[in-house]
Amino acid sequence: MAGKSTLVRALVSELEGRGVPAVRHRGMLAGLHPLQPLLRRLSSARQPDSWWTTTAYVIAGFVLDGFLVRLIPPRPRGRVIVQDGYGDRTVAFGMAGGPYLAAALALRWPRAFARFDLAVFLHASPEARAARLELGREHIDVRDERTVNDRAFTERFHAFHLHGMGRRHDQLMVIDSSLRSPAEMAREIADRLLADYVLPGSGVRRAGAEQPITDLKECT
């Protein structure tokens, strides 16, 4: 209930408005992940209460994805991939609801997961999330309700998310969505991204860029 999917859509629009091709993406990043169809049969909504679902998603899903994406790059090519959720949340939910062994092992070796050029952790105040839950949306699952109604669970989730999985990212932004609009957050993220990477075909390295990308096809 932090507004993650809303922000993803706003960021894609912001990048497109600046002439940078972008696409929203969910699920595994590798261009081909043979176990993804099987994982979709499991209830990710109830994952915090299931050691088996947590293990399947962490090991057979995201750890395998971290290996496969090196061999089979993300699709589509030629666009910035704005990933809507990833294994960081799965691990944090597994620790908050468990703790389960697979989640604990992922905290020990977080860089086994696929890497991102820029990661954004989004959160919101309990009051803001409760208001959003009350207003309703197209899809609300048991995780959404639990993060609003179970304060201790949510605090554990945020602690493992930020201080556990957060350390695997070289560039990490942490944003409170209850303080800014999706458009404002999207502009801030786009500014950060485009300050660190060159645009396709420009051949010009932007000031402060430490790791320029020449064609953005692997920018996630």
TrEMBL record:
Q: Which Gene3D superfamilies match?
A: P-loop containing nucleotide triphosphate hydrolases
Identify the InterPro entries for this entry: P-loop_NTPase
Name of the molecule in the record? Thymidylate kinase
Species source reads: Streptomyces xanthochromogenes
